[in-house]
């Protein structure tokens, strides 16, 4: 869905995903980075534009482009999705970053911004994360956030080639949020 929400802090700026971001995003997306996603790798600006338009058309999805807060350089993309304000739940995902930002403060900063908004502005009771069960890098990043593992949904994902995969689920509940927030703030203070 189209939105006008912008989140900023810790050297990172999340702005609404827009057509103008297709070229810089497609410049670093490749099969390795896109592994575990359910659509073909959008490695051209035209293909990435299709992904952007699909994000805009998806109900209950707020997609962002992740920018360097100082330079405006495109670092990647992330989203809120499956947002149900009445029930107080949302998922964070559709996340991918230029590999040069892997292992930096970028992901903790993005997640702190998103989780803070979900819990402290929207009053969410639950924020979930999921990843292809084979994507060890993403699962390790989710665990480092402090999210609690909930289990694996078997045959939950459909790859572009028609093969099926499992989804590993994690969540943070409202009463767990203060400790998760403190952990993310400590990581950012340490420069991680």
UniProtKB/TrEMBL annotation:
The answer to whether the entry has keyword Transferase is yes
Keywords of this protein's UniProt record, alphabetized? Answer: Transferase
Which superkingdom, per the lineage?
Answer: Bacteria
Among InterPro entries, the record links this protein to: Acyl_CoA_acyltransferase, GNAT_dom
- One GO molecular function term? acyltransferase activity, transferring groups other than amino-acyl groups
Which positions fall inside the N-acetyltransferase domain? 13-147
PANTHER family given in the database record: BLL6696 PROTEIN, N-ACETYLTRANSFERASE DOMAIN-CONTAINING PROTEIN
Please identify the protein, giving its name as recorded: N-acetyltransferase
């Amino acid at each position: 869905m189209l939105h006008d929400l912008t989140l900023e802090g810790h050297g990172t700026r999340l702005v609404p995903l827009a057509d103008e971001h297709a070229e810089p995003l497609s410049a670093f997306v490749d099969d390795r980075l896109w592994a575990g996603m359910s659509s073909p790798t959008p490695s051209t600006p035209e293909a990435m534009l299709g992904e952007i338009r699909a994000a805009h058309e998806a109900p209950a999805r707020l997609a962002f482009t992740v920018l360097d807060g100082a330079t405006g350089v495109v670092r990647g993309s992330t989203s809120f999705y499956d947002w149900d304000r009445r029930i107080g739940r949302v998922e964070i995902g559709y996340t991918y970053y230029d590999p040069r930002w892997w292992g930096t403060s970028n992901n903790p900063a993005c997640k702190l911004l998103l989780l803070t908004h979900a819990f402290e502005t929207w009053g969410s009771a639950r924020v979930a994360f999921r990843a292809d069960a084979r994507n060890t890098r993403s699962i390790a990043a989710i665990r480092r956030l402090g999210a609690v593992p909930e289990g694996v949904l078997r045959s939950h994902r459909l790859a572009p080639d028609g093969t099926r995969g499992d989804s590993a689920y994690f969540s943070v509940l409202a009463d767990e949020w203060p400790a998760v927030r403190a952990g993310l703030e400590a990581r950012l203070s340490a420069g991680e």
